[in-house]
Design goal:
By secondary structure, the protein is mainly alpha-helical. The chain has a single domain, classed as MetI-like (MetI-like fold, Orthogonal Bundle). Helices cover 74% and strands 0% of the residues. It has 15 helices and no strands. Helix 6 packs antiparallel against helix 7, helix 6 crosses helix 12 and helix 10 runs antiparallel to helix 11. The longest helix has 29 residues. The N and C termini lie far apart (57 Å). The relative contact order is 0.16.
Length: 313
């Protein structure tokens, strides 16, 4: 029986290696589509603004340079905010912390949720019941409410905001990962590895997780979008980054009282957050479609038609 298991492992080695490289193939197919290219371009522009913005600000983001809510001018292209600070400088300086916090929270949520989901699917039994019941309890709280609960009790600390948002993502990721891992855990190469006595952590790392890369890629994009919105929303409510820090969510809250006098204090960060959200959703949708093979049949049919026409000529 052990020899049969070893043969099964050898027969599926090439398949496992191909599955481990699948994430690159899926991402490549996604960005080659109009939908994926558009999403990647939008996300790239906003990320570039957030990354290099602090280095190219005309003024300090906390410096009082003119009258409050001053109109746009040659010196101040987007005018001034509620305290007379340059809106353009604060916009350029206000994105990198938001994106960094959202990225860390997303990674924490996806990694934690993936571990819980894979363990629940692989071990089953009372482990599955325990993990999923805890997840159901966390899911009973909406994401923003859960984050507000932790932050309001312990204070608006940056590490706590990141942790709260990450924890709020983990249950959704765990449910999706568990559903996908249940099928993978029944595959022959997983059974063969178990029969050969491979430790559970090694089976999960080498046999199960590489076959979930497409699912986790989609979840990563979706949770990053939610992280950006939740963290920006917390800043808007006053539970995120605190003044005088430049933050897109905080800028919207500070300048909403002067929306008529100078709308750019609200419009500039709002447009960037909206663009980033739309671009990330578009890119994630393209990755999901590429992972499922949506549109591949149409492309194959088109190529077949072109080849047939060339043969006729």
């Amino acid at each position: 029986m052990a020899s049969n298991a070893a043969l099964a492992v050898l027969q599926t080695a090439g398949q496992r290696r191909a599955r481990r490289r699948e994430w690159a193939a899926v991402l490549g197919r996604a960005v080659r589509t109009p939908r994926g290219a558009t999403g990647l371009a939008i996300v790239g522009v906003v990320v570039l603004i957030a990354a290099i913005g602090p280095a190219v600000t005309p003024y300090s983001s906390t410096e009082f340079v003119t009258a409050p809510f001053a109109n746009p001018s040659a010196r101040f292209p987007l005018g001034a905010d509620v305290l007379g600070r340059d809106v353009l400088s604060r916009t350029l300086d206000g994105g990198w912390e938001l994106l960094l916090m959202a990225a860390i929270a997303t990674i924490l949520g996806v990694v934690g949720g993936a571990i819980c989901g894979v363990c629940a699917a692989y071990f089953g039994g009372w482990w599955d019941t325990l993990i999923m019941r805890v997840i159901d309890i966390v899911l009973a709280f909406p994401q923003l409410v859960f984050a507000l609960l932790l932050v309001s009790v312990l204070g608006p600390k940056i590490w706590l905001i990141v942790l709260a948002v990450g924890i709020s993502h983990a249950p959704q990721v765990a449910r999706v990962t568990r559903a996908a891992a249940l099928d993978v855990c029944e595959r022959d190469y997983v059974r063969a590895a178990q029969i050969l006595g491979m430790p559970a952590r090694r089976v999960l790392r080498r046999e199960v997780l590489p076959n979930l890369t497409s699912v986790l890629m989609v979840e990563l994009g979706l949770r990053l979008t939610y992280s950006i919105l939740v963290i920006a929303g917390l800043s808007f409510l006053g539970f995120g980054l605190q003044p005088p820090t430049a933050s897109w969510g905080l800028m919207i809250n500070e300048n909403r009282i002067g929306l008529v006098a100078n709308p750019w204090g609200v419009l500039a960060p709002t447009l960037l957050i909206a663009a980033l959200t739309i671009g990330m959703n578009t890119l994630t949708d393209a990755v999901a479609r590429a992972s499922l093979g949506v549109g591949r049949q149409a492309d194959d049919a088109l190529l077949s038609g072109i080849s047939a026409a060339g043969a006729v000529q």
